[in-house]
Amino acid sequence: MYDYKLLAAMASVIHKGGFDHAAKHLHITQSAVSQRVRQLEEDVGRPLLIRSSPPTPTELGRLLMAHFMKVNLLESELKEQIDPKGPRAFTHLSVAINRDSLALWFIEAMGQFLQDENIVLEVLAEDQELTHEHLKAGRVFGCVSARHTPLQGCQVEKLGTMTFYLTATPDFADKWFTKGVGQKSLLKAPGVIFDDKDHMLHDFLAKKFRITLETPPLHVIPALAEYERFITAGLGYGLLAKSQVEEKFADGSLVDLAPGRNLPLDLYWHSWQLQSEVGAKFTKTLLKHAPPLLR
């Protein structure tokens, strides 16, 4: 049997991003956190944590963190089964979701479920190409990802497809694309991306216009609402999802810069194969309500 006090210390280091933050979370000294992690490593006889910034688990560390999270969920359910008439405690669930999904469809898909169940949800917002790293590290029990192959010990189901369009205001298009939208004009005009992890625009330009060696001037706007406003204000061109552009294309406030060259993004739900009851309910609800919203 593992000492769960030691596992809790290591989990806090990973989830909070460092020994000092873990110490504050656990209300103990940083030295005590370090001692608990070292003791756990001595107990299993192998390194469990890479002392980077932020610290990351080794392969064995990931397995132990996933185990620790599963045990916590199972214990929460066991308490309700032992005392079904007692006050229902909230169950903590952690998931990783790409920002577009979080902003555009996730709340609509899962809002009623979260109202009906005693769950507090911790969402780690990340690029869709990176959300699975949180699952791999044991930080979450599931993630929405562009990756279609399952991680070891996990299952994967397709949720649907988000479609993105290269768009700008008519005035912006008139200013920068007077001779049409092509390699030269796209490299001269300012584009908009979310952050340095956001590769969607680069991937779009490479796939649809064969722009691979050069990069246009870019606004970096790390907030989804402001990212969209930069485009609708005529400050740059960028990619917006179908639900964001349908009405604007219809009323003429935005134009499709590359008709017939939209970018489909397939999304998948990854989760543990061995799930708690509440985790299984979460997965079932997501698989039921997400696909209609992604058509």
TrEMBL record:
What GO MF terms are annotated? DNA binding; DNA-binding transcription factor activity
Q: Has the keyword Glycosyltransferase been applied to this entry?
A: no
Transmembrane spans: none
- On the tree of life, the source organism's domain of life is Bacteria
Database matches in SUPFAM superfamilies: Periplasmic binding protein-like II (SSF53850), Winged helix' DNA-binding domain (SSF46785)
* Keywords, ordered alphabetically: DNA-binding, Transcription, Transcription regulation
Enumerate the InterPro entries for this protein.
ArgP, LTTR, LysR_HTH_N, WH-like_DNA-bd_sf, WH_DNA-bd_sf
The segment(s) forming the HTH lysR-type domain are 1-58
Q: Which Gene3D superfamilies match?
A: 3.40.190.290, Winged helix-like DNA-binding domain superfamily/Winged helix DNA-binding domain (1.10.10.10)
The record's similarity note reads: Belongs to the LysR transcriptional regulatory family.
Write down the PANTHER family for this protein, in alphabetical order. HTH-TYPE TRANSCRIPTIONAL REGULATOR ARGP, TRANSCRIPTIONAL REGULATOR
This protein is called: LysR family transcriptional regulator, chromosome initiation inhibitor
Record organism: Pseudobacteriovorax antillogorgiicola
